[in-house]
Amino acid sequence: MKLSARNQLPGTVEAVAPGATTAHVTIRLNGGGTVVASITNEAVAELGLAPGDSVHAVIKASDVMVGKD
């Protein structure tokens, strides 16, 4: 599958925490960082996501915010 998004970060699913309608999917990136994605429970089921799965965190955003104290 090819995507237009340029920010595709490979990693491994560490945890899937389903909620009422959405799940938090924790991905350990190959570079050592962690990303948590909030996706629908339906998407988790359709993708068959489980800890240990190899995935890509795909980030497509028109804005990036930076804050500093």
UniProtKB/TrEMBL annotation:
InterPro entries: Mo/tungstate-bd_C_term_dom, Mop_domain, Transp-assoc_OB_typ1. Gene3D superfamilies: 2.40.50.100. Residues 2-68 form the Mop domain. Signal peptide: none annotated. Pfam families: TOBE. Keywords: Molybdenum. NCBIfam families: Mop. This is TOBE domain-containing protein. It comes from Paracraurococcus lichenis. The lineage of its organism: Bacteria, Pseudomonadati, Pseudomonadota, Alphaproteobacteria, Acetobacterales.
